[in-house]
Amino acid sequence: MRKKIIIGNWKMYKTTAEALAFAAAFKKLYKEEAAEAGVCAPFTQLAALKAAFDGTAVRLGAQNAHFEEEGAYTGEISPAMLVEIGVDYTIIGHSERREYFAETDETVNKKLHALFAHHIAPILCVGEKLEQRDAGQACTVVETQLKKDLAGLTAAQAGTLVVAYEPIWAIGTGRTATPEQAEEMCAFIRKTAAGLYGGAAADSLRVQYGGSVKPDNAREIFSKANVDGALVGGASLKPEDLIRIIEAAV
Ligand code: PGA
Question: pTM for the whole thing?
Fold first, then answer.
């Protein structure tokens, strides 16, 4: 049985004071049995959140990392710096980073390897644009992303992955994929992983759905066999909303 994993992606929201207010409310409400859960916060909030979540089961993640160990990369953060803070995960290849910050499958792949080397669990985002879906290319696009992004991983590494299927047309738009569309693509991701890394890895890796997940639509999406949780943007900013989504996984 794969444990469901619900992760908030705060994007560029919240000051540290606001993050700490969230943490104080959230840790009182969160019950670990419901699902593995946490938030991926902006870099500046991570140390404070780590301390705030100390002694709880709430997980913590970053939203990006550089692939080099160190160097002259102004404005970047290395995996070792994140290890020092004690993050559990890092989101990699979010569509906003691919679109606005020139992230490519090649850099995503380097980042995946760098994170594995530092024992930080990557949450790899893949997903198609609306015009690609309308042209019947959703599977091809996602398959190509997976092949390039996962290149060179071991089967053991692949088996521990979290992949977030995030159709770009559903992110922040209020337009959720139907539970059937989410299931179809999450199953396709698992099938692709099986082809690349074998059935055992594909069975144990977790595939999240992401894109306008809300307290009201989460239960139906989580009822699908291949959907192992969600990467939640807008609805993760309020502790009560994120808790309701986590509880929908039970
Ligand atoms: P959304 O964002 O839930 O606000 O659509 C999801 C994401 O970008 O991870």
Answer: 0.97
Q: Which amino acid is at 29?
A: L
- Torsions phi, psi of 33, nearest 5? -65, -25
* Pocket flag, ligand 1, residue 231 (CB < 6 Å): yes
pLDDT tens digit sequence for 164-210:
999 999 998 888 899 999 999 999 999 999 999 999 999 999 999 99
Span from the CA of 70 to the centroid of ligand 1 (angstroms): 30
Q: 36-249 has which CATH code?
A: 3.20.20.70
Enter the DSSP assignment of 169.
Answer: G
Which residues are within 8 A (CB) of 177 and not within 5 positions of it... i.e. 6 or more apart? Answer: 167, 170, 185, 209, 211
Reading the block at residue 206, the tokens are 């977790």
Q: How far apart are CA 14 and CA 197, in angstroms?
A: 38
Q: How far apart are CA 77 and CA 80, in angstroms?
A: 8
Q: 211 C-alpha to center of ligand 1: Å?
A: 5
